[in-house]
Automatic annotation (TrEMBL):
Highest taxon above the source species: Bacteria
Keyword Cytoplasm in annotation: no
InterPro entries linked to this entry: Redoxin, Thioredoxin-like_sf, Thioredoxin_CS, Thioredoxin_domain, Thioredoxin_ResA/DsbE_sf
Residue ranges annotated for the Thioredoxin domain, each copy included: 51-189
Record-linked Gene3D superfamilies: Glutaredoxin
Pfam families: Redoxin
Ranges where the record places region Disordered: 29-48
Protein name, as recorded: TlpA family protein disulfide reductase
Keywords: Cytochrome c-type biogenesis, Redox-active center
Compartments it resides in: Cell envelope
PANTHER family in the record: PROTEIN DIPZ (PTHR42852:SF13), THIOL:DISULFIDE INTERCHANGE PROTEIN DSBE (PTHR42852)
Species for this entry: Stenotrophomonas riyadhensis
Length: 189
């Protein structure tokens, strides 16, 4: 029984350390003082205003898993569309994928369409999907200051990030962070 106390203590120390690290990494940047000069906005950020509720799906054409261009507006027109931005190296993204796959399977021919948008390399995504297959389409994007995730409103650049568009292609809502089991069904209503 004595060995349990040190293990519990080390677990608590590790959890506290991770909590402090996450708090530091995720804390908002302090506002500049009145005497401070504001940081220069990057041209990419200034050129990409945040997507707002009611805005149309941006004109995006991205390669699919066969490296063929896929025009999102054309391919997914006429039905609601849930776009989930993820990466193979993102643990919360990977954890929510079975939930996204379950939701997509239950939609049938007239329900919400699901699209995975991987901020990753084609090779890494293909390798990942060999281990964790999903039944919904996947497109690939190279991460960058004006990537598709940013154009879809992910101004913080964190993953996973999901957006829901209605049948007319207008933004309904956005979510930063993973879906819990059963949450997608409530979220799209």
């Amino acid at each position: 029984m004595k060995w349990q106390r040190p293990a519990l203590l080390w677990t608590a120390v590790l959890a506290a350390g991770l909590g402090l690290w996450a708090g530091h990494r995720l804390a908002p940047a302090p506002a500049p003082a009145a005497s401070d000069t504001p940081p220069a906005a990057s041209p990419a950020a200034a050129a990409t205003p945040a997507l707002q509720v009611g805005d149309p799906l941006p004109a995006l054409t991205l390669p699919d898993l066969d490296d063929r261009p896929l025009d999102l507006r054309q391919r997914f027109a006429g039905r609601p569309l849930l776009i989930n931005v993820w990466a193979s190296w993102c643990a919360p993204c990977v954890e929510e994928m079975p939930e996204l796959a379950r939701f997509a399977r239950g939609q049938g021919d007239n329900g919400v369409q699901v699209l995975g948008l991987a901020l990753d390399t084609l090779e890494d995504v293909r390798g990942f999907l060999q281990r964790v297959p999903v039944g919904y389409p996947i497109v690939i994007e190279t991460p960058g200051p004006r990537d598709a995730s940013v154009q879809l409103g992910n101004t913080q650049g964190l993953l996973p990030y999901s957006v829901l568009f209605d049948a007319q292609g207008r933004l309904v809502k956005a979510k930063l962070g993973p879906f819990a089991h059963g949450e997608i069904d409530r979220w799209v209503k």
